[in-house]
Amino acid sequence: MTDTSTSLKRTPLHAVHVAAGAKMVPFGGWDMPVQYTGIIEEHRAVRAAVGLFDISHMGEFEVRGPGALTGVQALTTNDADALALGQVQYSLLCYPHGGIVDDLTLYRLADDHYMLTVNASNIDKDWAWLSENTRGGVWTNVSAETGLIAVQGPKAEGLVQRLADRDVTGVPYYHFARGAVAGIPCLISRTGYTGEDGFELYVAAERSAALWHALMDSGKKDGVQPIGLGARDTLRLEMKFALYGNDIDETSNPLEAGLGWVVKPAKGDFIGRAAIEAMRAAGAPRKLVGFEMAERAVARHGYGLEKDGGSVGVVTSGSFSPSLERCIGMGYVKVPLAAVGTELDVDIRGKAQRARVVKTPFVPSHAKKI
Strands (DSSP E) along 111-191, which ranges? Predict the structure, then answer.
């Protein structure tokens, strides 16, 4: 087992992972399980059956009061006013220059009450940004008291339903309901980061372990497995879901990253709006694309993308795809080279390895669209 610094933060499920023999690694300031039995096996378990992910390291901020909507609208790119009660929205926080502070999911919990779920490595940065730029509402950082377990895969719905005190089969994609799972109060969100059907269960931190064990016990008949960060990464890559710090960051404009669909300038002003719209008018100079490698060579983050010997972009994510059994990746390239079928080279330790831009997602989504 990897020895990690005692300065790393731990989720409420840390002892559960250690007891299960997980390989623990530092991730965004946290001591997290990267794998249990192996990345490929865990990846395929999620695609074929069901897997449990500890994502309690994610951050949660709540905002309440008569000014909550005004505050959220001024900070996020999507139109929070379009959210119905019980609905979830993917959105972004942006800097004035249009770069991305973070990507997030926004929940409308009640009238004048919202929750933002942000990336683990960005909690402190995001909280500082929100605190400095808030324009309405009373904000609370509830990250430390919130546990979060993802149940993902074609058998996820059946597993959660067996333990729930309410019908979860009718909860639409990107909506949520409140109820008890294994007798434990949860916010049951039909969301995920895998491309499979499933839920993300928000629970009081001190009850996370009890919920985890109940799901593992009930899921034995489904072939449930605990899933580490390694498979979470390959699953999201196959869907071309962006990872903050790899595919998007403060240098990325949402339009370049293919996230223009969550930018709603018609809603009114928000931080970053002018810069994003200026790029929309001028045209983005580069685009985030997916590519497949011709050979079994992995394109890693930061590797150069080339065309005819010249630099044309950079790899942001890359891995072996357990579903496709070939190596895939994502990267920014100049717009004229972003078309499907474009041949490129990846500079892998000084050797040009052939790649081709392909249609994404790399595999079909099975998220349940009700």
Answer: 113-118, 138-141, 146-152, 176-181, 184-189
Q: Which of 359, 298, 302, 308 is nearest to 329 (CA)?
A: 298
How far, in Å, CA of 369 to CA of 15, rounded? 35
Handedness of CA 91, 96, 99, 100 (dihedral sign): negative
pTM, entire model: 0.96
**Cβ–Cβ < 8 Å for 296, 327:** yes
Q: What is each CA distance from 295 to 168, 247, 331, 354, 356, in whole angstroms?
A: 43, 23, 17, 7, 11
Element containing residue 355 per DSSP (H, E): strand 351-358
Residue with tokens 């496709």: 324
Q: Do the beta carbons of residue 260 and residue 63 sit within 8 Å?
A: no
Q: What is the pLDDT of residue 370?
A: 55
Distance CA 345, CA 307 (A): 6
- pLDDT on residue 3: 46
Q: Which stretches in the chain have pLDDT values below 50?
A: 1-5
Nearest CA among 150, 163, 312 for reference residue 231:
150
pLDDT reported for residue 6: 65
What the chain holds in terms of domains, given with CATH numbers, is 14-56+145-238 (3.30.1360.120), 285-358 (2.40.30.110)
